[in-house]
Each structure stands twice: as C-alpha cells, then as structure tokens.
C-alpha cells in the first residue's frame, strides 16, 4: 500500500470513505462518497487509480489494502481530510 500527501493527489479521483455525518460536515471538493462499510457492495463505483481519504488516514489505509487485493490501483491520502484542510486544499464545508 502506498501513501501519498494531499499535494500528490493531482488528477486522481478521490474516494471519501468516512461516515455520512462526517461527509456532511465537510469533504474534499469533487470527491466520491462511499462509506467504508459500503465499499464491498459498491466496489464497481470505485474508480481505478483512486486516492482514498478518511479523517486521518487509518480507515482509508484499510480500504486501500482491500482495493489492492481486488486488483485496483489505489493510494491512501496520508493525514486524511485533516491534512487536506490544513494545506488549504479545496473543501466543501469544513473539517472539525
């Protein structure tokens, strides 16, 4: 599994695996929302090459490991939405 910084995401599609309440508080502009508990049943919605993000990077790391076992190219956004927001990257809402 590979971690990348928010600055390294570039043009990768972003998949946010946080819970709906977390998503509603604030999320990466343009991200796809697929809560961690729904990834298996919604696997077809996960784009190959995705950068997976959660609040701090722990849940997304587990999801990336699963996606790689399914043959998808995926990377973990180190530091999650907390790091994303701290770097001033585009957000819808804010991260508490």
UniProtKB/TrEMBL annotation:
Domain of life: Bacteria
Ranges of residues in domain Rhodanese: 8-93
Pfam families, per database record: Rhodanese
Family annotation (PROSITE patterns): RHODANESE_3
Protein name: Rhodanese-like domain-containing protein
The species this protein was found in: Agrococcus citreus
Lineage of the organism: Bacteria, Bacillati, Actinomycetota, Actinomycetes, Micrococcales
